[in-house]
Amino acid sequence: MTGFIDPEREQFNAFKSLDRDHPIEMLNLVRFRDKAAYPAGHELAKAGLTGAEAYRNYGRDTAPIIARLGASILWRGAFQTLLIGPDNETWDEVFVARYPTAHAFLEMVTDPVYQKAVVHRQAAVETSRLIRCAPGQSGTSFG
Predict the structure, then answer these.
(1) Alpha-carbon separation of residue 142 from 11, 38, 97, 114, 137 (angstroms)
(2) pLDDT by residue for the chain (143 residues), tens digit each?
């Protein structure tokens, strides 16, 4: 399976072309590498960290940015099993992050501190899915 770690240019352009002036919710599905893959020369390249440990570094370093922007983790769950979908898609982290606007998300990913911290995510992640959603209505039925 091909790993998906960073957005492709076309995907990022599609994200930016949508309305930015309303809250967005980002569904995150993340599978970790067994061993983190930091770039050669990075201070943690030979530390022997797991992907999960590298992802915790990413969370630690980005938490102040998320707080400053007014973003939060709306929901987090532990993956148990796949009922519908490809058998090879399993996830170590499943969560929904909420941003006050798409502008806030774009501010996050262009923040110099974030850009330094994202190396931990890139080292940690084998593959992922990041799905932008507009908040919808809760209810008692499907559809």
Answers:
(1) 28, 43, 22, 37, 11
(2) 468 999 999 999 999 999 999 999 999 999 999 999 999 999 999 999 999 999 999 999 999 999 999 999 999 999 999 999 998 899 999 999 999 999 999 999 999 999 999 999 999 999 999 999 999 999 999 87
128: DSSP letter = E
Q: What is the pTM of this model?
A: 0.92
- Give residues with Cβ within 8 angstroms of 138, minimum separation 6: none
Q: What is the CATH number assigned to the segment(s) 21-133?
A: 3.30.70.100
Per-domain boundaries in the chain: 21-133
Q: Pick from 21, 7, 10: which is nearest to 134 by CA?
A: 21
* Rg (the chain; Cα; Å): 16
